[in-house]
Amino acid sequence: MLLDIRGFRFCSPARMLAALVFILLCVQPGHGQTCTEGFAYDRRARQCIDVDECRTLPDACRGDMHCVNQNGGYLCLPRSLYNQPYRPDTPALPNPVYQDPSAGFPDTFLPAVPGGGGGRGGVEPSYPRVRSTAQCILGYTLAEDGTCNDIDECETNSHHCNPTQVCINTSGGYTCSCTEGYWLIGGQCQDIDECRYGYCQQLCANAPGSYSCSCNPGFILNPDSRTCQDVDECEDEPCSHGCFNTYGSFMCNCDEGFELAADGTTCIDLDECSFSEFLCQHRCVNTPGSFSCICPPGYYVFEDGRSCEDFNECDTGNNTCTTAQVCFNFQGGYTCLDPLQCRPPYVEVSDNQCMCSAENPACRDKAFTILYRHMDLSSGRSVPADIFQMQATTRYPGAFYIFQIKSGNDGREFYMRQTSNVSATLVLSRPIKGPKQVVLDLEMVTVNNVINFRGSSIIRLTIFVSEHPF
Ligand SMILES: [Ca+2]
Ligand SMILES: [Ca+2]
Ligand SMILES: [Ca+2]
Ligand SMILES: [Ca+2]
């Protein structure tokens, strides 16, 4: 078996022993009285001295080999060469031959230098010089095919990166680097505080080796995970009515007649009726988004939407009066007047006047004529108010006239005010509340002292007082 000495480490300078040399190796200094292999302790000399294996080992070299003792070991040399003068550095020698250890030779090649326990320092053993057939520069290793391959220090864990670092293999070497999110400070990989460097547009949370951005309410994170963009909240229709998107928020508005609730999104109806009691002449009804005025029966809502206007049932024919009757309209209603019937001794002289003839003794002390008139009056009309006028139609020389309320004024709401010799006005002096009918007999007394005449005429005025002040 050929000895392949390539790869052995020689820990001291090996002297060239030509190619035949076979021998060993590192010196492991002995301690105390223990000597390394190949030496034995000599008590007298008190030191380790070389063992002559050629003499102590039977068949140290076999076959045609000749044993040559060496300091700390021995050589087996072909006998044919043994007689030749030993010339170091002579190249053309055959390869060394290794004696099969199974034939009694120690299995291990052992150091041949005496140990520190008093070995003979200075006596250098002869070592074979190892000539490497190929060599690689640092960081490469020789492959079987003889090429130099890069050593992956990271893979083989032969790097010196510290635990915070990451090993990156390079050709012929390696580098220690920090992972993303870390940078090298003082030989250590330290987290980058990205928030300090404005990585995020709005909100930033630093984390070891990383960071995360977030956005203020009303914004969403863009796909770049750093910038924020406004949310168009209106897309989700958050408002009851109108929605306006704004940068970072949104605004709701409401249709006319509504107002925004405290939540900023709900539209609630305005109660216009609560604004003013004068909004409607009669009654206000709130409706979603608006309001309406209503009027009592007998009225309709005027064009202005708030005033109440009397239905003229007599004009519109929307009445129940018979053809014999006369329809009389008043505020909030109407009435059907029956045909005039004069009570005897009165006789009818027109459709609204009865007369008691002077020639008829029964008419003595009675009013000469009774004229029937009707009028309407709004309830709550302000006072005083002139509401009716009467005037003498015929004049007698030397006569004068007295105007007075003969009956019907029980509540003292009216009085007569004479406006001239021949005329007077009926005045409403107190508020009057309807609905009701007041029948007043307004008397005009004619006095003529020249002919010693005294007579009277009556206007029987029926006043329809409305329920409402309109
Ligand atoms: Ca970080
Ligand atoms: Ca928005
Ligand atoms: Ca409303
Ligand atoms: Ca009416």
From TrEMBL:
InterPro entries: cEGF, EGF, EGF-like_Ca-bd_dom, EGF-type_Asp/Asn_hydroxyl_site, EGF_Ca-bd_CS, Fibulin_C, Growth_fac_rcpt_cys_sf, Nephronectin_domain. SUPFAM superfamilies: EGF/Laminin, Growth factor receptor domain. The keyword Secreted applies. The keyword Cell membrane does not apply. SMART domains: EGF (SM00181), EGF_CA (SM00179). GO terms for molecular function: calcium ion binding. Residues 150-190, 191-229, 230-268, 269-309 form the EGF-like domain. It comes from the Eukaryota. One of its GO terms (biological process) is myelination in peripheral nervous system. Residues 1-32 form the signal peptide. Gene3D superfamilies: Laminin. It is found in: Secreted, Extracellular space, Extracellular matrix. Pfam families: cEGF (PF12662), EGF (PF00008), EGF_CA (PF07645), Fibulin_C (PF22914). Keywords: Calcium, Disulfide bond, EGF-like domain, Extracellular matrix, Glycoprotein, Repeat, Secreted, Signal. Belongs to the fibulin family. PANTHER family: FIBULIN-5 (PTHR24050:SF26), PA14 DOMAIN-CONTAINING PROTEIN (PTHR24050). This is Fibulin 5.
